Amino acid sequence: MDVxxxxxxxxxxxxxxxxxxxxxxxxxxxxxxxxxGKGCVLTTSYGQVRIEFLPHLAxxxxxxxxxxxxxxxxxxxxxxxxNEAAPTRGSLGPPYGLLQGSLQSLKLAPxxxxxxxxxxxxxxxxxxxxxxxxxxxDHDEWGGAHTVWGxxxxxxxxxxxxxxxxxxxxxxxxxxxxxxxxxxxTEVPFRxxxxxxxxxx
Length: 201
Known about the structure:
Elements: H1 3-28, H2 32-35, E1 38-44, E2 47-53, H3 59-71, E3 78-84, E4 98-103, E5 122-125, E6 131-135, E7 147-152, H4 154-165, E8 169-173, E9 180-189, E10 191-196
Antiparallel strand pairs: 1-2, 1-10, 2-7, 3-4, 3-9, 4-6, 5-6, 5-7, 8-9
């Protein structure tokens, strides 16, 4: 093989590697492509909370939630337990503008992904835990501290989510940080299942 042939071979290998690296994000996570345009639904006694997956922001977290939704509709330990109304204008809280819950049946607590600030209606994991929240307001002040993995349909934000946020609560002081939290008097369990998402929820 002469120098010209060798150079051509190296160039072809580079093109192949470049193509593979472009596709690597999708190939690295099972079902990445299939998760686009899909989601899950949390069914509570107050109604449904339909969530569109955002795999481009958090592919590993979305894959974990997808596995949970496809394996266990009952979702043992899955519930909403903290209801923080939107803070008054100009305040960062309390209340803190979120509805918090648990996906206790996840196999593992997902690691942090992305650095996207939470916006109203987005669903976020608290890194290193199986706890999540739905943002009731934009939370630019938290930066990318939480993993954004889904977005609740506008209709369900205005109905089911706000119905749960409006339920009675009691104040609890965090033993380590001193934060006063609003905990639901009666926790709201939910079932989880996969669903398609057409943008018309």
